[in-house]
């Protein structure tokens, strides 16, 4: 590497550090769970996407271990060459059935599902209308697609209608609305009934990324379209196997047969990236079975979210309103979020500060997330730590 290029990178890192935006990773030395071992200490984990607590569930571990014993470690091929295992097809059928869609297609991650979705389906004559708070992978997927782009302010239905009208006025052939079902930084639900109504009015397709909903939101955990009773009107769903459904790796698109078929032929992250390991597929099927029958888990998760939210509010923290198990504690500047996370770490609570570029400047926060397996004792311990850290920083009295 040339010295100039090294200096360029070092300056970039110094700038990130000076702004308090440097991210530090703290390695876990135990399974992912409600309690984790980090740097020799046991911490209460309040920042995993492990909503149903399945990441270390013995049933998933057994299913994965058995599949690995029977079918080996890896596929060493993309799907269309020789990487398709029977377990891939079984998982795709199970996902489609669970979500009420014709079919589903697996990707290495939902980042790839969103990254590969738009480009094969839409061309330069078409338009995509996208919520401003959509996940980075949707934004990147749209960038890779030649369709015209329209953006509307988060959840703003007048903005959505204006964008749809603009798309129609510019002569777009096909129009697709793209939105997160739940916005991951805030825990806000997209207004799906209104979105579907506008889609009907303007003849648009609806795509929903339900990563922060599938498995634990709506009846049987089927996600935000089912919660809003518009599952029949949401055409395309994307989601992850890396959050509530076991937390390992993998993503998918579920939708009409023609969509899935076109993606199998044309989606670049599907064609040019390795197939999921059989063990992940076997355990994911078990995770869906557990989620589908998991009303008790969902009840405890919702209960925990209420208790935690009420507890933080009573302490005087500024929260974003809502009922999702994502509970963001708003702290303003990145440095405050960093300091708060560091203090909580010292007090035995594992949380992470979120700041630019993952949220806008000035809206730094600690995103806490609930898990069905957290007990009242755990949550009380968490509230005590938040109270102590908040008081030490003069944020609460
Ligand atoms: C986590 C997340 C993704 C990425 O999922 P991976 O499977 O981890 O790549 C995509 N979209 C949303 C809304 C997410 O929250």
TrEMBL record:
GO terms for biological process: heme biosynthetic process; L-threonine catabolic process to glycine. Binds 1 pyridoxal phosphate per subunit. The modification N6-(pyridoxal phosphate)lysine is found at residue 243. The keyword Ligase applies. Residues 42-386 form the Aminotransferase class I/classII large domain. It holds the Pfam family Aminotran_1_2. Belongs to the class-II pyridoxal-phosphate-dependent aminotransferase family. Catalyzes the cleavage of 2-amino-3-ketobutyrate to glycine and acetyl-CoA. This is 2-amino-3-ketobutyrate coenzyme A ligase. The gene is kbl.
């Amino acid at each position: 590497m040339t010295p100039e290029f090294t200096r360029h990178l070092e300056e970039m890192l110094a700038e990130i550090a000076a702004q308090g935006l440097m991210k530090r990773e703290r390695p876990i030395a135990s399974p992912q769970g409600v309690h984790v071992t980090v740097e020799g200490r046991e911490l209460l984990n309040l920042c995993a996407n492990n909503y149903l607590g399945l990441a270390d569930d013995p049933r998933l571990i057994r299913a994965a271990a058995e599949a690995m014993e029977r079918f080996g470690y890896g596929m060493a091929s993309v799907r269309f060459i020789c990487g398709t295992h029977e377990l891939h097809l079984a998982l795709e059928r199970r996902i489609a059935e669970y979500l009420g869609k014709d079919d589903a297609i697996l990707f290495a991650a939902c980042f790839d599902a969103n990254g590969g979705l738009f480009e094969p389906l839409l061309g330069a004559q078409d338009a995509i209308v996208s919520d401003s708070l959509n996940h980075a992978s949707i934004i990147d997927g749209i960038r890779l697609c030649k369709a015209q782009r329209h953006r509307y302010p988060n959840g703003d239905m007048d903005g959505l209608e204006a964008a749809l009208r603009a798309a129609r006025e510019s002569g777009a052939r096909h129009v697709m609305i793209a939105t997160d079902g739940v916005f991951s930084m805030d825990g806000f639900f997209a207004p799906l009934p209104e979105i579907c109504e506008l889609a009907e009015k303007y003849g648009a397709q609806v795509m929903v990324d339900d990563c922060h909903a599938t498995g634990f939101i709506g009846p049987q955990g089927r996600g935000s379209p089912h919660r809003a009773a518009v599952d029949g009107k949401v055409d395309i769903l994307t989601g992850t196997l890396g959050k509530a459904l076991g937390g390992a790796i993998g993503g998918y698109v579920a939708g009409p047969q023609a969509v899935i078929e076109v993606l199998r032929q044309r989606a670049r992250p599907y064609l040019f990236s390795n197939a999921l390991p059989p063990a992940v597929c076997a355990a994911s099927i078990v995770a869906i079975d557990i989620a589908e029958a998991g009303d008790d888990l969902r009840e405890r998760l919702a209960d925990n979210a209420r208790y935690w939210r009420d507890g933080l509010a009573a302490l005087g923290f500024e929260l974003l309103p809502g009922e999702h198990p994502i509970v963001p504690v708003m702290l303003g500047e990145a440095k405050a979020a960093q300091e708060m996370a560091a203090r909580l770490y010292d007090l035995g609570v594992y949380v992470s500060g979120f700041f630019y570029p993952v949220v806008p400047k000035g809206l730094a926060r600690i995103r806490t997330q609930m898990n069905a397996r957290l007990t009242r004792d755990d949550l009380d311990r968490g509230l005590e730590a938040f109270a102590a850290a908040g008081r030490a920083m003069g944020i609460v009295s």
